[in-house]
Amino acid sequence: MPGVTKHVRFDERNTMYSPAPPTPSPTYSNTSLPSSSGPSTPPQQLYSPLPTGPVVIHPLLAFQPLIPPILYDVSFPPNSVQPNVHSSPTHLSSQVLAEPATSPPLQSLTLLNQSLPWELTIRPTSSVTPFVTVQDVLHGVYRFLRLSVNSAEYSMLPSKDHQMRVNLAYHARCNRSPSKDIYDEESKKGVKRVDFLMGQNKLMGLSSTKRGPDVWVLNVS
């Protein structure tokens, strides 16, 4: 928005996040993430041991550095997801989105990204499907990245250059607001976790790690 003095804001009320322990857990973090919709806590799940064999990510979520299977800007709600016409499938039905995010299905997934100092744990949002679905991943990523950043978290950025790039991403996100009222509302909410991606908001898919079958890298570009 032209004529607006550019300041960076923070949300000091965000106290829900607990930093990950210095030694990574072999399975997943127990951090609870607030949600904008649905139950305040996920349905209770019975413990299920991690599979000992290979775990394959759903084709819609698989990391494809050249032709991602879906087109999704993670700064927008998941209903903006579109199939990539150069990939497959060409239609994202509710049945496809309800499919397990992995094979075999898992009760939780932990997602990491080198630009984010937090870990994201995805859990089932429905008792009907006691495993993480494709839709759970897309919605979980969006809700996680919409969380506000406080000044202590902002200070975790490793350099002034990183701070500048995060600031630019924050202002760019606010400036795309369709009206001044929405711009004012969005800018008052301050820097969000999505801004830590520094404009690299295009989902490229999930890739495996050496931490276990339930820990994946969230790749963006």
Automatic annotation (TrEMBL):
Residues 1-47 are annotated as: Disordered. InterPro entries: DUF6699 (IPR046522). Residues 26-39 have a biased composition (Low complexity). Residues 70-211 form the DUF6699 domain. This is DUF6699 domain-containing protein. It comes from Serpula lacrymans var. lacrymans (strain S7.9).
